Automatic annotation (TrEMBL):
Residues 1-19 form the signal peptide. The keyword Transmembrane helix applies. It comes from Salipiger thiooxidans. The keyword Signal applies. Keywords: Membrane, Signal, Transmembrane, Transmembrane helix. This is Nickel transport protein. The chain crosses the membrane at residues 165-184.
């Protein structure tokens, strides 16, 4: 009878949930802010509206994600930009780019008016004579290559977080404890 109760209790034990987390990230991309929205299981938020707000909560603009969950936004003021998106089913993505990063994109000081554009770009003395078009092409190529890596890293973190590892260790310890308990009962009964 006890074995039957033990088997029933093990059969009713809760299984680990296959939950996923929202992934949201923003980073400088030339003269724009590029970001991605999706879930840790690899599903990306396609064609989702993203609302951009300033530090005081005023709306600065809106943009939409593409089929791969990526979006771009061109900032106009060197203030912190917060990106908000409703991904449905209670999932809300929120990520902020600090004012310092936005200021670097605009070439201005944080919380100040944007600086006037430079009259022309001189080649760097150490880097050779790459023009603006070549630099832009290289930056786009690097971004395209890095996108899948970012997704894979986020998915890896989701599936191999500390809680999962400790849970697995707990299951193993529990099974050993159950085995020792049953062995001790057999020894006492025999």
């Amino acid at each position: 009878m006890r074995r039957l109760l033990l088997i029933a209790a093990l059969a009713c034990a809760p299984l680990p949930a296959a939950a996923h987390k929202v992934i949201a990230g923003v980073f400088p991309s030339g003269e724009a802010i590029e970001g991605e929205l999706g879930f840790s299981n690899g599903d990306m938020a396609a064609d989702t509206e993203v609302v951009v707000t300033g530090p005081d909560g005023t709306e600065l603009g809106r943009t939409r994600t593409d089929a791969d969950g990526f979006f771009t936004y061109v900032p106009t003021a060197p203030v912190a930009h917060s990106f908000h998106a409703n991904l449905g089913a209670g999932h809300v993505a929120e990520v902020t780019m600090p004012a310092e990063d936005v200021a670097r994109i605009l070439g201005a000081a944080p919380a100040a008016a944007p600086a006037p554009a430079a009259p022309g770009e001189a080649p760097s003395p150490a880097g050779g004579a790459l023009g603006a078009a070549e630099k832009q092409a290289i930056a786009e190529a690097v971004r395209d290559e890095v996108r899948p890596l970012r997704r894979e890293i986020a998915a890896y973190r989701e599936h191999n977080d500390l809680q999962s590892i400790l849970g697995g260790i707990g299951y193993i310890v529990g099974l050993f404890g159950l085995g020792f308990y049953l062995a001790a009962r057999r020894k006492l009964a025999g």
